[in-house]
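Why does residue order matter? Because the sequence determines the fold. Keep that principle in mind as you read this record.
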Amino acid sequence: MATFLYKLGRLAFRRRHFVALIWVALLTLAGVGAASAPAAGNTSFSIPGTEAQKAFDLLEQRFPGASADGATARVVFKAPAGEKMTDAGNKATVNKTVKELAGGSEVASVADPYTGHAVSKDGTIAYASVKYEVSGMELEDSSRTALKDAADDARKAGLTVEIGGDALNAAPETGATEIIGIAIAAVVLVITFGSLLAAGLPLLTAIIGVGIGVSTVTALASALDLGTTTSTLASMIGLAVGIDYALFIVSRYRAELAEGRTREDAAGRAVGTAGSAVVFAGLTVVIALVGLSVVNIPMLTKMGIAAAGTVVIAVLIALTMIPALLGYAGRRVKPAGEKSKLLGGGRAAKKPARPNMGTRWASFVVRRPVAVLLLGVVGLGAAAVPAASLELGLPDDGSQPVSTTQRRAYDLLSEGFGPGFNGPLMVVVDAKDSARPKTAFTEVSDEIKGLKDVVTVTPPQPNKAGDTATITVVPHSKPSSTTTEDLVHAIRGAGDGIKAKTDADILVTGSTAMNIDVSQKLNDALVPYLALVVGLAFLLLIVVFRSILVPLKAALGFLLSVLAALGAVVAVFQWGWLSGLMGVEQTGPVMSMMPIFMVGVVFGLAMDYEVFLVTRMREAYVHGEKPTQAVVTGFRHGARVVTAAAVIMIAVFSGFIGSSESMIKMIGFGLAIAVFFDAFVVRMAIVPAVLALLGRRAWWLPAWLDRALPNVDVEGEGLRAKDADADEDRELVHA
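Structure:
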């Protein structure tokens, strides 16, 4: 592989006009496609295989036109102090609002509070239920605007009006911190390279790669039902890895120049050596992201594939566009150890009187490997302690900041009707195979009334055929409580007895039941997903490092860092530690998909640093150095660049903490802290300590397996052989 990539790098350097033209054309094509594509809004949300989804599908069949999974909104009214919602003036305002809401183009129905018994017992709070024909993620912006306008009109009449439900779900907004993250990355690159031009290359190529990836996602959003969260994740991952991959190749290019090679040869060798690590690091990220499809949640699958596509683009740009731009830069990109005129007067830097920081740190670790290993493991173990209290769930209006209308509507409904009113359960009774459907409906209703934590059970509402009915159950507890979850399981458990008596099936659905089912599905998929991703990457790393213990150490170190990161997420988003600093206005359960998503993304990124750092050690070892000396050599060449790459990735991920979307905020924080733990504790401390303790055993591989594995030549052995042949030819000529 090194030889092929070496030729590719030299070709891109020589044919830089052609390479640059191709990437500019792709960026233009993707941009035009994004600009001309129809707006797709948010992606639809379905969870195949869950009982809640089966109930939705059944309702679509048995109640045609009812829009079972359509968006809902609750317009909540509160009378001024000393007044009632039943007063004539307030009643007239509500009736006018209901009429205004009913005129919406996507509105399926609006329930009048006064005919639907939607007024609290004390008469101070009432609500109007709005049902839409499409889901909240497919709702047009005009419908949301009409909903807000109707509420504003009622407020002007003197009522307190708030809006709850999923109809107001909007595209997430990222704050200025995202730009700050990119600015920090730029500063780190300038410090690392000592040159504004060399620092600008990784930023430029990363932005081009993200531009192509996100524009492609936008262009295909309507056709493939991709949402705004998908493009946000693609930009987050693409920007981070794009900068890092380019950083490693530019750094290796400058090192090759310092050894006296021509610029074209240095570009080829940078792509042949560091580029090989980029390819395998990119493959681990792609495996982790595409592997999210095993969870069988379409939204998560699309997010993973879109982000993986952006990573592939980042790899291709690093291998082709970086050497092309280095060709354009010419002598303005200095060899390692030299600075630009702006930053160092163009003078070659004096050789340091002592080894660099990476060498000194590695030497310290290999002298005291046991102490460093214990300190690293205990530290990560302490950070992981909060993960034992992990509570999973999907966000509802109760987890929104108190400044939002959704949260205020949630609180008003809890005040007027009880906390369980915000998460009603819909029980679907399928009596198609029953000889006495009406009897089955009644028995189900009576059975549910006898369960704990039940406040209200509405009469069964059958369809026209009379073979299916819906029953609404209002729990006593709030939607995200474990008591409500127990009630859902109790209703489903009672279904076995009902089935035996009446041949009728019971399905429980609604947003609360759907959240419970999603959490369970994600929990069940975590272990198979972990086995698949870690297993495939383990095999890949065996090929790269030609070792059994090094990939095993890499996987175990990853588990430590991801557990510590989950502990940090629990501490901030569930317990509220430093929540003010992170902009977390409301604590609550950690998002259900967070653990499995962190496993996928963090594993891929963790293997980046493993590949970049350890391949240098492997390279030194196979060329004759002792194991401990090879560790020091790897750090001498790679520690500075890996540190810069980690700081850049942390800065980019931290930029997304400013998002208005709680999911993006949590993902940004989780990935940033995970990269910190993995890069600076696992890869910089635990890895060299373990390798020092293992010695030559770290690079052991059974002979039969060594013969069976393909030789991918990540260390560039073929290029060294080429050098040796060239030197021999020169000696013969001079002789």
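The first helix runs from residue 2 to 14.
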